[in-house]
Design goal:
By secondary structure, the chain is of the alpha/beta class. The protein is built from 14 helices and 8 strands. Helix content is 54%, strand content 11%. 47% of the residues are buried. The N and C termini lie far apart (46 Å). It has helices at 3-8, 20-26, 35-42, 48-61, 68-88, 107-123, 139-150, 163-171, 181-191, 203-217, 232-236, 248-256, 281-290, 292-318; strands at 12-16, 30-32, 95-98, 131-136, 155-160, 176-179, 223-226, 243-246. It has a single domain (3-318), classed as Aldolase class I (TIM Barrel), CATH 3.20.20.70. β7, α11 and β8 form a beta-alpha-beta unit. An 8-stranded parallel β-barrel has the order 1-2-3-4-5-6-7-8, surrounded by 8 helices.
Amino acid sequence: MNKLEQLKNMTTVVADTGDIRSIAQYQPQDATTNPSLLLKAAQDAHLRPLLDQALKQALAQAKSNDSDAQRIARAADEFAVLIGAEIAKLVPGVVSTEVDARLSFSTAETVNKALNLVEAYQRLGLGTDRILIKIAATWEGIQAAKILEAQGIHCNLTLLFGFGQAQACADAGVFLISPFVGRILDWYKQHSNIEIADPLDDPGVQSVSRIFNYYKTHGYQTVVMGASFRNQGQIEALAGCDRLTISPDLLASLQDDQGPLTRILEANTAESDAPKQTPFEASFRYDLNADAMATDKLSDGIRRFIADQEKLEQLIKSC
């Protein structure tokens, strides 16, 4: 078996793309999208009919007092759901669709947006068993996820860089988290003289491994899905993680590699020296502030997703 086939035997493989053709080619269990991937999809002539359909649906749902900005934002949501619905035809599992990152610091608005996305999916015949609502792992986002999970709407907490974020997500009963491996490494390369001789020494890999071991040691059911990979070595160093979301180019690299793949993470033998904790808002914010990398990358990630969301809306406006 090639390494992709071997990986699928120990980890649920998720496609990190909005490219429907890539998903059909690599046959992952699940798929996840974000504003950056949707912006790329919106520029694909093959998917232009979905963009046109999103515009028509947004106009049909518009209220007389809606502003142009509200109509465009609704069209962007409809496009995200239409892409998600197409992806759902190709994967047997779930599709993650992201809440507007501009709402990352409002629990109420995040919940409301999530409910709108769920309703849009339901109009297309997809229930909550096929989707995950993707939310930035701010304190407000985690509290929104807690509310949604209580209503049976499963969430994927993204832009997760710090251990405190992971603790808070598990305590809130979040279904799944997406700790970012590559962006953590990016930060250390920028702010230190770090050299990685072995993927197990990668700070992003170590972060996900620590979270995985903490969850399994203390019996949390929250799924750990490593994300944002920069190279194949990072993926191999997390073989055995609950899920890994992987870009098409790295899926291709794994598929072309006929070498053996060793399982690194094992739930049954996981050990963590971190005591089980129930984070409160003050301790969460204190720990996040104390972690310069997590603070920088969370803020940067939200800014980047907002920028791509706004580019997507400008593209829709010009149609």
